[in-house]
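Reopening this ticket.

The earlier resolution said the output was attached, but the attachment link was broken on my side. Pasting everything inline this time so it's all in one place.
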Amino acid sequence: MKILRAEFIRSCLTTEQLPSGTIPEFAFAGRSNVGKSSLINTLLQRRGLAKVSRTPGKTRALNLFAVSTDDPTMPHCHIVDLPGYGYAKVSKSVRAQWAPLVEGYLANRDQLLAVVLLVESRVPREQDGDTIAWLASIGCSPIVVATKADKLKAGERVGALRRLCDVLAIQNREALIPFSSVTKEGRDRLWAALLLRVRT
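Inline output:
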């Protein structure tokens, strides 16, 4: 699939600021510094579109990107970069603002077709499992992507991904998508998974 256009359109601090219409949306969630911005840039083949920061907790709004493709199944879509979770140094008041914004969006947005949950391939986190459980409670089955797969040595890769599935209670290990923004591994698989949500 070829990306014809990809551009940042707005940051939303409330769900009321989200665009109306029927363009399908895909939300990207994960812990702070799990590699969301790098993944979005790789997925859209645009360097620097989503701003990469070394400061955890930098994203504090719903950041929307408009995308046009050459695939007739999905000529247009919105990519939504959600604030990262799990960063302790962000103030409690800020985190209190994030929770209703993100949870309200995920639970009530009709245009949302899929949630892509990013987890780090080398470091399984209990909080990621809690997120999967919460998403399941609102009827959402996320597409789980294991980032920074290039950092896994060949001899530890199978064991690391199996351990990740065990910690996150992922039954179908084939559904886990290893991804690397360095080697571009997983890009085509992730697009295929997103297109499947459009078609079903």
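Reporter confirms the inline version is readable. The chain has a mean pLDDT of 88. The beta strands are 3-12, 25-30, 62-69, 76-81, 112-120, 143-147, 177-178.
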